[in-house]
Amino acid sequence: MLTRTIRATAATAILAASLLATAGCSQIAAMAQPIVERTPDAASSASAAGTDAAAFESILTQDGSVSLTADVADDLQVTIDVWAESPKRTQEWTTTGDKTFGYAINVADYRVAEKATLDQKRRVYLSQLSVTSTLSPAQTPGPVNFTTDPRTLVPSDAMSTDRGLLLNSFQGGLLVPESTISQLPDGTTGITLDFALTLSAEGSPNSDGSFSEQTIHQTLPIAIFAAQS
Fold it and tell me: Is 148:129 a contact under the CB 8 Å cutoff?
């Protein structure tokens, strides 16, 4: 079995689309590749902002980026790489102002070499992408709430079929450089994003009759701090 090497893939994804994920509003546009900066002082800033915010654990807040991975099948894995775009210093993510993040969705078949041709890999198609949010501590719905067909976010020549957007093509996966969280209610200490991916995965390479569909959920907690007066 090949040794798995989990790495951020956002910088290699070449399909770019932008979603402005505010309540009832979305916008699509091309954008350059993101630069992720580490924010090691997030924990100390959280303490200064208040005990509730400090207690809301978030790897994204600590590191500025995170990889969410899930198994689609044995040695077949989908990854959502998420990074803080603006402000890049995540301790500045307060209840007021816009807070922008980006993410990329990719898939890897670890039964074959990374540079294996597509006909040697188990194909995985993404037919629907949904991102919703919940606010803490109230546990009420947040402003991020949208569902989309990823084929509408990419150029017309992107590799796709009636099963959806092909994630493991030579063109790369899906890159969404900007999604924005706007003003949040006072007292909010965190927002948890829920990514839902509807996938069709091939049971064995070059076997059109072996596809099966599933929906994978990944959650991402993000700490929110009180606005400084």
Answer: yes
Looking up tokens 């969280």 gives 181
Q: What is the largest CA-CA distance in the chain?
A: 61
> Look-up: residue for tokens 């501590």?
137
Q: How far is CA 153 from CA 103, 129, 177, in A?
A: 13, 11, 11
**150: helix, strand or coil:** helix
CA dist 57 and 90 (Å) reads 13
| Per-residue pLDDT band at 41 (split at 50, 70, 90) | very low
Prediction pTM value: 0.78
pLDDT at residue 144 is higher than 60: yes
- % of the chain at pLDDT higher than 90: 69
- Per the listing, tokens 């949904």 go with 130
Phi, psi at 11, each rounded to 5°: -70, -20
Tokens 């207690």 locate to 55
Nearest one of 150, 157, 152, 147 to 124, comparing CA atoms: 150
Which pLDDT score, from 0 to 100, does residue 54 have?
52
Positive/negative CA dihedral, 51, 229, 85, 140: positive
Distance, in Å, from the CA atom of 35 to the CA atom of 128, rounded to the nearest integer, reads: 27
